[in-house]
Write a structure and sequence with these properties.
The protein has 3 domains: about 1-135; about 150-220, Ribosomal Protein S8, Chain: A, domain 1 (2-Layer Sandwich), CATH 3.30.1370; about 240-328, no CATH class. The protein has a 3-stranded antiparallel β-sheet. The longest helix is centred in the C-terminal third of the chain and has 24 residues, at about 215-240. The protein has helices spanning about 15-30, 30-40, 45-60, 60-85, 90-105, 110-135, 155-165, 180-195, 215-240, 245, 255, 260-270, 315-320; strands at about 175, 200-205, 210-215. The protein is built from 13 helices and 3 strands. By secondary structure, the protein is mainly α. A hairpin with a 6-residue loop joins strand 2 (about 200-205) and strand 3 (about 210-215).
Length: about 325
């Protein structure tokens, strides 16, 4: 059922529409198990039906519009709670609802309250998706490791290894060349202090042969980084399906500040022109009730807290933020 066909519900009055919405909500809240099953299998709720029902309520008049706003708000908020345990709800239901709502938002002049409801819910869905699913870029692990000083060996080989171990930079590989006796000594010292936290491999090429030392933490971080980059690519694919959300005045500030600045710039680079001049909305001063990201250290700053009463981005500010050509 297409969301732009509210006439399919035109024969129902507002009270009947309300009964339909109540039945859907009741189906969702019978029990936690039934709720998750219903959402995961799309048994009771289809995103197009939900949005069509909401648009039909808007067509019934102001009273029905307020009922529709309450209905879609309850449904989305319940789904967001469930998505904490079942994040696949974002792909199957929540993001499609956000996309469909954003395609035909109520007019801001004739239906100001409903327009605000749609903008808030779409923003909440996308901010939750970024925070709970995409998440902030994983911080590099602390690559500084304790030296071999506790072993009371002051030979030149151990001093070389100590410089590598104490290095906090992303230098995780060190090649030590020496005789078999020297390589064996270094290997013994490293195993005594760090056990299996280091990968030690002898390369029988060159003269003398080499002991290749790798900090294992780098491999763990590489996997985390690649997994995060895959989630970012998926988020971009989702945004490509709904350019109207970026180009229009739908998404509020908590979308643009849902993740630290470096992550948002990577996600939005192809949607805001020119990418090199992305200017995200400045965060409000931090408070206990609404902590915003610290732009001084984007990698380590936590995401901003979502707010159900998120104010909309001013249209003139949006024109400055968003390029006229929009999507690629």
């Amino acid at each position: 059922m297409e969301p732009d066909e509210p006439e399919n519900f035109a024969h129902l009055d507002a009270s009947e529409l309300w009964k339909d919405s109540v039945r859907i909500v009741e189906a969702l809240v019978n029990s936690e198990a039934d709720v998750q099953l219903a959402w995961l299998e799309d048994e009771y709720v289809d995103s197009r039906t939900v949005v069509s029902l909401y648009h039909a309520m808007l067509c019934e008049g102001i009273d029905a519009s307020s009922v529709g706003d309450s209905f879609v708000r309850i449904l989305v908020h319940d789904a967001l709670l469930l998505a904490k345990e079942a994040p696949e709800l974002f792909d199957g239901t929540l993001l499609p609802i956000a996309r469909l709502l954003g395609q035909q938002p109520p007019h801001p002049e004739t239906r100001a309250e409903s327009h605000r409801t749609v903008c808030e819910l779409v923003t909440e869905i996308w901010a939750a998706y970024l925070q709970d699913v995409v998440q902030a870029r994983p911080a590099p692990p602390d690559l500084k490791m304790s030296t071999l000083a506790a072993r009371d060996c002051s030979c030149g080989d151990c001093r070389q290894i100590n410089s590598f171990l104490a290095d906090q930079n992303p230098s995780t590989r060190y090649v030590f060349r020496g005789s078999e006796r020297r390589r064996r000594h270094v290997k013994t010292e490293l195993r005594a202090v760090h056990g299996n936290a280091l990968s030690l491999k002898t390369e029988n090429t060159g003269t003398p042969h080499a002991l290749v030392i790798n900090k294992i933490l780098d491999h763990l971080y590489r996997d985390e980084r690649q997994a995060w980059e895959a989630r970012v690519r998926k988020a971009k694919q989702q945004l490509r399906q709904c350019p109207h959300l970026i180009q229009g005045s739908i998404l509020g500030p908590s979308f643009f500040t849902a993740l630290p600045r470096d992550a948002m710039e990577q996600i939005l680079a192809e949607f805001i022109v020119p990418p090199a001049a992305i200017e995200l909305p400045a965060p409000a001063p931090p408070t206990d009730a609404n902590p915003m990201l610290d732009s001084g250290n984007a990698t380590s700053a936590g995401p901003a807290k979502r707010s159900a009463s998120d104010e909309l981005v001013d249209p003139t500010e949006r024109k400055r933020l968003v390029g006229s050509e929009g999507m690629e």
